[in-house]
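quick one before i forget lol
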Amino acid sequence: MISVPLPGFPDLMTANMYVLGSGPVTLIDSAPKFPGSLNTVQSQLESFGFTFSDIERIIITHGHIDHFGLASQIKSLSGHDVPCYIHEDDAWRLSRNYLESGMWSEDSVTFIASMGMPEEIAQRMKRRSAFFKNLCDPIDDVLPLQDGDVFTGEDFELVIIHTPGHSPGSICIYEKRRRVLFSGDHILKHITPNPFHEVHRSRLKDPTYKSLVSYLQSLDKLSQLCVERVFTGHGDPLDDLPGLLASYRQHHAQRTQDIWHALENRPRVVFDLIPEVFPLLKPDEEWLAVSEILVHLEILIDEGRAELCDSGPPAMFQAL
């Protein structure tokens, strides 16, 4: 494991990368492009007896910047062609087109208006989006992964498991002989991962995609595996996958119920639900909050317990 500090993101603890094999090696994920991050990766890689030239391939668990930020530089420094793989449903997130022009788009503006977010928060989110673009380089020649793909090395066999939810193209990587799972952000020991509402709907292969619905289905898929240790995208490894999966299901069921209760008395705008659902919300986390509330509302609507009563903007929801 290569652990890279994440300045300004204490909840995530570290960005974790994994080096598999005895040479050539497979690299799982790459950290964001903070000042000094590349040197950190290089020195830790060298402490294992490898250099960038020993990397045979890079597998990205999902298309968020903190998991592919350095991949382009690592490919260049290797001195040879290093294929970079990501699930086909997240490949667009690594493209130059998206990173240079699409991270803040009309879809973002429409979403913010629909959620009832104040203009000053919208502008803060726009500035934050511009900052994130500095933490990665695009990769336009990425190769697509699909569920069930297999990669082999000298003493390992990696099976790709498509686990959408945190993003549409999130994957976990399973090494059956050692009963090891590399989980990206689908499974984290110290926090509950966010099933993000996907704002850029026009870029999705399935425009009806619902992240929390998909996330819960992906948890069921993992529960069928025999796993002794999970190596996560942030923080420490974990040994009790069944126990953690149960806690995730309980957490989301309670969150869904809390949101339903918050809608009981009258129709509400999503942003106005934040104080009740997230009373201890930190600054700059409003986007995460409205995203999580919305994905739980999708569950309630599917269950017939809530409805969109006014499309707005802002959109209004009510309990049934």
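fyi Residues 241-262 form the longest helix (22 residues).
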